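Task: sequence design from structure.
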């Protein structure tokens, strides 16, 4: 329900995808100022169903949110936009996992039936949904274990205007993407 989720939700809806935004409490979320005038449906995590899921939570809340969605993730593509940022010591943040592991790998281990793809985490949400904001053509990076999940994620990126999706290989490449 934060800036990344709202930006991706609006952009995906605008290009014809059916979008539902997950939240712990849909009624409480709808009351928040930043949701005024937004025409995106909200649903409780446990009530979600879909073909593709986008994890747009902050990294520290990712596992809890995805666990709350539960079995609906089994066999589904989960595009992880989160980063392992630790703000406990202020700004700039450090990473709560790096080098020999990544948040994406941790999520995949905890949710082995999900088809996790790391993508969109290396840029601001305004660029995620509108790559034409940049002065030149650019590349979006993806890491994945499942090739068909990568194709699904690349197709969604193309719908948002990305023309070059560079496959970094298996999910261990998320370590570099998260540190970037």
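Answer:
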């Amino acid at each position: 329900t934060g800036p990344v989720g709202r930006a991706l939700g609006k952009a995906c809806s605008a290009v014809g995808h059916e979008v539902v935004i997950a939240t712990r409490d849909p009624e409480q979320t709808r009351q928040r100022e930043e949701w005024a005038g937004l025409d995106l449906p909200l649903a409780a995590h446990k009530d979600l169903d879909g073909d593709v899921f986008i994890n747009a939570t902050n990294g520290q809340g990712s596992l809890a949110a995805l666990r709350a969605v539960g079995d609906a993730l089994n066999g589904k593509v989960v595009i992880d936009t989160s980063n392992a940022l630790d703000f406990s010591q202020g700004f700039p943040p450090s990473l709560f996992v790096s080098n020999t592991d990544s948040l994406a790998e941790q999520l995949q281990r905890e949710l082995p039936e999900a088809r996790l793809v790391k993508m969109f985490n290396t840029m601001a949400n305004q660029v995620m949904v509108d790559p034409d904001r940049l002065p030149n053509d650019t590349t979006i990076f993806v890491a994945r274990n499942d090739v068909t999940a990568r194709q699904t994620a690349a197709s969604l990126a193309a719908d948002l205007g990305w023309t070059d999706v560079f496959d970094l290989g298996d999910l261990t490449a998320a370590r570099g993407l998260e540190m970037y």
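Residues 33 and 123 are 25 Å apart (CA to CA).
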